[in-house]
Amino acid sequence: MTVLRVDCGAGRLTFGELAMDCTIGRGGACPAADKREGDGCTPLGVWPIRGVLLRPNKIEPTGLRLPWRWVRANDGWSDDIADPAYNRPVRLPRSFSAESLIRSDGAYDVIVVLGHNDAPPVPGQGSAIFFHLSEGRPTAGCVAVDRDDMLRLLPLLAPGDVVEIL
Predict the structure, then answer these.
(1) Nearest Cα to Cα of residue 112 among 163, 43, 46, 44
(2) Quick one: pLDDT band at residue 91, thresholds 50, 70, 90?
(3) Which residues act catalytically here (predicted)?
(4) CA distances from 79 to 9, 90, 122, 150 (A)
(5) Looking at the 3D structure of the chain, how many domains does it have?
(6) What is the pLDDT of residues 96-128, one digit of tens each?
(7) Is 142 a residue of the active site?
(8) Active-site residue 132, yes or no?
(9) Domain range holding 61?
(10) How far apart are CA 46 and CA 60, in angstroms?
(11) Phi and psi of 57, rounded to 5°?
């Protein structure tokens, strides 16, 4: 197991010898126990890397060791606390609120899914905490890095690796 460390105060992410700037949530960082849906906080803690979602024709999966799949046009992620599928991937459209995994800004061209509030999900304690591409502004609670940095880092990640947010 290798640890990808996110220093929220410094805005830096490190993995072995690699170090890069990163962005966190618009609400700053908060203890995982205090995380609430929609608060914009990045939850502190150690989160397993579950897998990778890639946008077709945007990123090639060359050299990936993590499990991955292509994002499809109707893929979403439930953020509705009343949804039995809260904090899970879902198909759109649906009767509950869900975020589309296809975005026009490119932030979700690469989504590294983190195991925050997923074993099992507790409604209201935060959904869709990802490691994704930066668009030069704070996230909704995720961790983000520039595209070039993500492309350097992605092939180095392996099953069993974790993200430590501190």
Answers:
(1) 163
(2) very high
(3) 132, 142
(4) 27, 10, 11, 25
(5) 1
(6) 999 999 999 999 999 999 999 999 999 999 999
(7) yes
(8) yes
(9) 3-165
(10) 28
(11) 65, 10
